[in-house]
Amino acid sequence: MPLSPRRRLVVSAPLIAALAGGVTPATAATAAPSVPAVPASPAVPAVPAPDMEGVVGALNAAMAQGAPGAMARYVGPWGARTRTEGVRDRVSGAAMDSRARFRIGSVSKTFSTVVLLQLVDEGRLELDAPVNRYLPGLLPDDRITVRHLLTHRSGLADYTDAMFAQTVPGFEAVRNRVFSYQELVNLSLSEPRTTEPGVAYKYSNANFVVVGMLIEQITGRPVADAYERRVIAPLRLRNTSYVHPDTRIKGMRVRGYLHPDEEGAPLVDSTEQTVSWAQSAGAVISDLADLNTFTTALMRGELLSPRMMDAMTTVTPTDATNTRFYGLGLRRYDLSCGVQVYGHTGTVQGFYTYAFSTRDGRRGLSAMANTSNRGAANTALGGTLEAAFCGKKPSTARAFSAAPAEADLPERR
Prior knowledge:
This protein is α+β, with helices and mostly antiparallel strands and 413 residues long. It contains 15 helices and 14 strands.
C-alpha cells in the first residue's frame, strides 16, 4: 500500500540511503557505517566516438587514388557502424556492399599464426626449435626457427619480388596456376637470403608458406581443415573460407581491379584466381564483419592462451618511424592519439585490406578497397584507422600514415 504524504515525511534519510543501496537498514543499537555512494555509470563510453565522417573521407581518398570502391566497418562501445563508397563491380555498376566477400591477402598470415600457436600451446612444436626439426632438410640453415618465420626474421627471400616484377604479366602467368608448397620454397631458396637468421625484419611470403607446411606436417591435415576447426567454426565466421585452389569467390562478392604498371592503362579484373602463389600466406576470403569478429576475439584471448598472446603481441620495429611494429604474424600500429592497434594489412591482386583491434578487443576496424598496385590508395585507406580509433581531432594533430613502407610493393602483401 503506498505511503501517505504524512508517512513519507517521517522516513529517515538513513533509511532512504539504505534502501537505495539494497541493504537492510540498521537499528540504533546495531548502527553500521554509512554506505558510500556508488558512482553513476558514465552516460557515454570512456573511449572516443569513431569519426565516421573521417572514415568516409579516407574511403573517398582511396577512390581518388584509383579504387573503384571502398568500405569500412567499426565495432565497439558505440555499436557497429558501416560505411561504403563507390562500386563493387565496374561492369554492372553494383554499389559497394558491406556484406560482400573479398580476398583478404596477408591478413591470412594472422589466421595461420593463430593455428600454429595453438599447436605450440598443445606441445606439438616449439617456437624456438629449428624448422628442420619438423621438416627435415627443407631449409639450408638449421638456425632458422619457427619464431623467425612468424616474425619475418628468417632471411628467406620473398619469391614474389621476382614473380611480380612486372605486375600484370606476372599476375597473368600465375592466375590459374597451382603451386605446391615445395615449389614456392624452391623459388625462395633460388634467391640470395636477405639476412642472417634473427638479425633483422624482412617481410617475406616464403615464411608463411613454410608455416603452412608446418601446420600440415604436424596436424596431418590440409591447412583449410585447420582454419575451419580452429578459427572459423569456433568464431562462427560464416563468410570466411580458404578454397585454394578454387578460383571463385562464392556468394555476393567484391570484384578486384589491378592497376597495370603503365599509367593510364586499363584496370585488370583480377577477381578470379587460385592465389596459389600465396596459399597460407594470403589466400583466405572473408568479409568486414567476420574480420571484426576475428581481430577482436583474438585480442580478447578467445583463440590463444595468455602465454601465446604475450608472445604474439611482443613486437619489434619494422622501420624508422617508431610507429610500426611486428610481433608473431601480427602488426602493431601506434596511432597519433596514443592508441595502439593490432592486426594485419593485406594485399592480393585487386584488394587492399586493413583488419585491426585495440589490445583489449573492445574496438575493431576492418576496411577494404578493391584495387592494388596503387600504393597511394593503400595509404589513403589506412586513414580509416586514425578516424575510427582516435575520433575527431584538431586539424593540427600529427597525421598517421598507416600503410607500411613495404606496401609500395603491393602484390606481396
